Amino acid sequence: MMELLENKVAAVFAANGAIAREVSFALAQNGATVHLSGRNLAAVKQLATEINQVGGTAIAHQVDATNESEIDAFLTKVVAETGQLDIAFNGIGLRAHELQLGTPSTELPFEKFKEALEVSLGSQFLTSRAAAKHMIAAKSAGTIITLSASLSRIKMPFMAGITAACAGIEGMTRVLAAEFGRAGIKVTCLNATALVDTRTIQETQQLNAKTIGISAQALGEQMKQGYLLGKSPSAKDIGKLAVFLATDTGALLNSHVIDADFGVHSVI
Predict the structure, then answer these.
(1) Contact of 21 with 15, CB cutoff 8 Å
(2) Residue 211 and residue 104 in contact, taking contact as beta carbons nearer than 8 Å
(3) What confidence tens digit (pLDDT) does each residue in 198-249 have?
(4) Closest by alpha carbon to 52, among 77, 20, 29?
(5) Contacts for 245 with CB less than 8 Å, ≥ 6 apart
(6) What is residue 198's three-state secondary structure?
(7) CB–CB of 15/91 below 8 Å?
(8) Between 68-82 and 122-137, two packed helices, what is the crossing angle to 10 degrees?
(9) Among 174, 237, 189, 200, which residue's Cα sits nearest to residue 93?
């Protein structure tokens, strides 16, 4: 069977996150050589070992995806060793408690509001433009996949900072697609809904439920009713979708924000 991403080289930032981990596995399982990066080198090495043990090809690197010089050095190394860069994905995100999710906007420290923008939106900008620069230099008509969340299009309280960051990532994706398309580079945004199998969403539900004054289980049931198929995707589902977006057929969705949610009742 032909592998969808045979002979492709991918760079994944913040690879230890729940979504980025599954994207990394899916890219490798479909034939790509995946260069994993993250601040915790030991954890990235463990992920690379797990991917290699099931027949994939993964190499670990220590990179802070908010540090421009580290990002550039990482991609310079990848291109120097392989001669190409075909796929870039950034799964960066902060924990719910780090962003003080669940805090009313009237009480949220402005520094925490800005932190969501600087880390999530800022990192996506840095990694996307660096990937484009190296793709252009290597003459790789590659694919850059950014990551946002359904907060950008639903009306959920106590999430001002991260919601603003997600909306910003989606707007930026369209701009970068317009710029980088001149070099044949595709830029697409994955808008992942609340993935109930991830620690971040479980923590967020607990914090929001506490603020509202209901149980986390009750809030989870309310959220579940919003899905047209009665369920939300898993992180593995998002990984598989990323593979499709990185293929030649996936280029049809260039510049678009892809709502990965099985369909929901309430969207903008």
Answers:
(1) yes
(2) yes
(3) 656 555 555 555 666 766 566 555 566 677 888 778 899 999 999 999 999 9
(4) 29
(5) 143, 145, 188, 190, 253, 258
(6) coil
(7) yes
(8) 30
(9) 200
State the pTM of this model.
0.90
- The 3-state DSSP composition of the chain as helix, strand, coil percent (nearest 5) reads 50, 15, 35
Q: How confident is the model at residue 1 (pLDDT cuts 50, 70, 90)?
A: very low
pLDDT in tens, 193-207: 766 566 565 555 555
CB count in 10 Å sphere of residue 54: 9
CA distance 19 to 200: 11
Q: Which of 194, 95, 178, 195 is closest to 144 using CA atoms?
A: 178
Q: 24 by DSSP, 3-state: which? A: helix
Calculate Rg over the CA atoms of the chain. Answer: 18
Domains and CATH numbers, the chain: 9-195+234-258 (3.40.50.720)
Contacts of 153 (CB under 8 A, 6+ apart): 191, 259, 267, 268
